[in-house]
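### Sample
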Amino acid sequence: MGLARLAAMHGVATSYEPSAGRTVPIPDATVVMVLAVLGVDASTPEAVNASLAAAESAAAERLLPATVVHWLPSAEPPEAVASLPSGTRLRITPEDRRGQPGGERQAALWAELPPGVHRLHADAPDGRTGTATLVVAPPRVPQPPGRTHGFLVQLYSLLSGRSWGMGDLGDLADLAAWSGRALGAGFVQINPLHAAVPGSPADPSPYRPSSRRFPDPVHLRVEDVPEYTRVRDRARLDALLEKADALRAGVLREGALIDRDAVWELKREALEIVGAVLPTPGRRAAYCDFLAEQGQALEDHATWCALAEVHGPDWHRWPAGLRDPRSPETERARTELFDRVDFHCRLAWLTDTQLAAAQRAARDAGMAVGLVHDLAVGVHPGGADAWAQQDAFARGMAVGAPPDAFNARGQDWGLPPWRPDALAASGYAPYRGLLRGLMRHAGALRIDHVMGLFRLWWVPEGREPAEGTYVRYDAEAMLAVLVLEAHRAGAVVIGEDLGTVERGVRDALAERGVLGTSVLWFERDWGGTERPLPPESWREGCVATATTHDLPSTAARLTHDHVALRHELGLLSRPLAEEQAADAAEVADWLAYLTRLGLLPEGRHDEEGAVRAVYRFLLRTPARMVGVWLPDAVGDRRPQNLPGTWDEYPNWRLPVADAEGRPMTLEELVATPRLHALMDVFRALEPGTGPPGARSV
């Protein structure tokens, strides 16, 4: 009982419910290991008693929690303030650092507070004092200005005739400008553009980055850097362009996979040549402003990049003195490697400017939202963020998932989680900075595994994923910071809430205006008939789509190609015939329903018509945003990522292709009749013809 009480005080679960009415206990050894990472000794019964006594004593003495949240426009004080002893005096120091005195529980004070992250000071009559971070947030994140539709695409997979072997920010700007102007699209949602861990070969997954705070310069369009036109040694650049042409041709015409490492090798050399050109005074001033604005975070990131070039991409294997970003050895190395540090700072600046240009292109094309960026759930343990923010991460732990119907052993994603106690103690500074950077040039932000704002499954190093446990975060504080930063950026927020979701999470997110993610094949009346969920029963607060990067394309689903692929790779959990029968029954069920709704006039055996019917159905729902998986528009059957595989399948390395598997350029894609026939479905939705309660496009 003592261990359970101690764990509960620190947000560590001692059991979990994988399904209604079923409780699974957590091994005591796991709980002890997790508590140890949080600085709590539970190694023996005596240690548990001592730690429990210390925790209870600290709680009794504490006047304020580490973080207090106040939701506007309420004039009532937060519960933590309302429960203070009578006569307690309060002072609030706003973000502008000017002190603002306040009396005890003055309602007017709370109603008039500006949104922001302030400091709350309390002086109790008994002599106790306390300080807390006070997060004052608007009630909800911004919402899409009317109903809208747009494309979902993995940027690396979208090559144009100018790409250097993978899609880039120039291609993104072109896609946004074209789809906004020609198709009336309101957004383009892309994969995370986070900085990757360098290496050979580098991990191609965009969901296991070195840093979530800065984008990867591999996405740069080199020719769009202003200094490019002033390079005098054109021969070197021309030679690199020839190699880039060969990379592009290999992917588009010869069946080669996207090779991120080869692309970066060429771009790095080209950018070093371009970087030798002196910028104009105005450009230099803009760069200096960027350095000042980004501050220590950028300096740390660039320093890690420079050190990784010398010592390798895993900072745990660096010389001992360099493992600490604040050590004298690191400071000396930063000085010695000044040119390389500056190079990586400039790459971050150039990437930021091209991201800004892509968002401007989207908005100039009339997009209501524009770019939708993606936030991965974590970072690589050996990468830049884990090095620079070591105190914020739980050492020896990895984020994962408990066993479920699809993964009997559970999952270990190898990403170190944030420590909830460290976040609270810092006033959520790492989290705030992360969100602010991602929303700089975004009309919306998608949060992968948004349930992680509430709790995460921690797997101790050396343990099986099933031997992990849930660790809880201060969800109210996490949501308040999210709403505040979205409010400041004017950005919509989308939560990826697929799979097993804890009770109450979707309601809490919806209350704050966070849109969910609804995928057609998963939307059934699970509590009743288990038949396809009628379109009018779908939630309004969501992005409705037919598939995601981890699921089969719609064509593959309709033709059952995804079953054959999984069988070929040995991924089926039951006999092939049984799997085929179940899949055929599911597809037939949906096609019959689409036919009954009058959405499939082409007939069940018309593949392109069936794809269009799926999207007609999505437009029947009240969803605020409808996402078109771009490969669906051209009949691509190959998934971009096949969970459960590594080398067995070319995850994250495939270009967008047509129904025959022939890779397509952006220029070819925008001209294909199949795409335009699909988008005619959206053109047919004239203002005023949407579903009940929906706003017009």
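Confidence is low (pLDDT under 50) at residues 101-105, 686-697. This sample (4-alpha-glucanotransferase) is used throughout the tutorial notebook.
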